[in-house]
Amino acid sequence: MMLRPDGTTIxxxxxxxxxxxxxxxxxxxxxVIDAHIAVLERFAPATNAVVVDCYDPARxxxxxxxxxLATGPEHLPPLFGVPITVKESLAVAGLPNTAGVVAxxxxxPTANATVVQRVLDAGAIVLGLTNTAEGxxxxxxxxxxxxxxxxxxxxxxxxxxxxxxxxxAVGSGGxxxxxxxxxxxxxxxxxxxNGVFGHRPSTGLLPTTGAWPPPFGVAALCSNxxxxxxxxxxxxxxxxxxxxxxxxxxxxxxxxxxPATTSMRGVPVVLLDATFAPGxxxxxxxxxxxxxxxxxxxxAEVTRVPMRSLRTIGLFxxxxxxxxxxxxxxxxxxxxxxxxxxxxxxVARRGxxxxxxxxxxxxxxxxxxxxxxxxxxxxxxxxRTAAEVTEIIGDGLLxxxxxxxxxxxxxxxxxxxxxxxxxxxxxxxxxxxxxxxxGRGAHGLPVGVQVVAGHNRDHLSIAAALxxxxxxxxxxxxxxxxxxxxxxxxxxxxxVMGATPQTTTGATGSSANWVR
Length: 516
Hints:
The chain contains 17 helices and 13 strands. By secondary structure, it is an alpha/beta fold. It folds into 2 domains: 13-248 and 265-314 and 378-506, Amidase signature (AS) enzymes (Alpha-Beta Complex), CATH 3.90.1300; 315-377, no CATH class. The radius of gyration is 21 Å and the shape is globular. The two termini are 33 Å apart.
């Protein structure tokens, strides 16, 4: 790993620090790109995080960027030369966009997702696309297109989902920033499991254009967002990606505050009690309480509020989704040419669909048999709970565990809808949530906490993340375990390696995007 003058490595730094070093000619773009690719390649056999690599195009773009720097340009875009990774379910022109669905393997979008295009226009260079849960619909990143992604700290554990590939790529140090999506924890859970920062923005801040599955009637639940190894990168990236695009009807222009100048003094911080079912992990609750103590030391005012209704909200997520979209996930998949409910698929051990997807489809069938009035009552109750959470937070913050335990072993979340109890209410409320790493727990696995703020107060949850990063150190580079993973990953489908994206639309952050 290349050492910087201060003894750190290129792959330790924030994206904004890397961009500053490139602008100051302290480091070449090629050196930055090569250093990050080396880390991704080192961890690849154990994690299977990057499933479509763009390494050769990225190196070529880096050389072009360095040549441009040599001309002495007056102005450079804010992420000039900074490497990023992108969740495979976000459209990048010319590259696969399967979202882990076998029936979508032939698709190659001709345009970038809005948030991808905006980041490329800001000068970033795509290193590759990362793995996701099948259809982006579960807490583990496993599918029949690319196989399974493993936790960067322990390959026997899940990397989370649905943005598990991003969590593992950023968590390894191989990417400073990852673009991802979050409906029911898909950014927060992988960030937690891999010990990095994640931010699900306020509803209506970032366009969802170019994400698959499309949000249908639950746009309030769906959000694009960011996973990062340093908290300082969260707000700059939000500013780049935010604002209307003329397509997503929900997005409005918003004024974003400045986390770096936001004090915690006098900020009300809520901890929820009577919320957790028996068996909830003491380790993650202890981490939440340590975070509360650190914010108290910074001047925040912590109170506790009992709230039992969060114990079961995740169980009803499927009902809420179906009720508000008017379409089931099985129907969405059928529209792509994939029939999850076909008898041969339901019973096939190695068919086109994972067990989690098949169980979800069966759960939808059961939920569809509920009388309409019951489904509507459940949906209304879920939204009342979300409204109550919003009211409790007010202009302050709420600290809440991300999962009931540290990263579970592979398969231990399948069919367990209650695993989403800790993340679902904030999605339903459309609130900004910053996932903050708080170091490692007893078994060397990351612990962390969700910091939830009021609507359009993203700067406040990110300010808390900056405070907690100072107190606990933030991201910790994982120890590289044995990469001889043998048969555990030996039967996974082969990644789509060395894909060449289209450059005419800016898919790879080519020079056309940053030479002005």
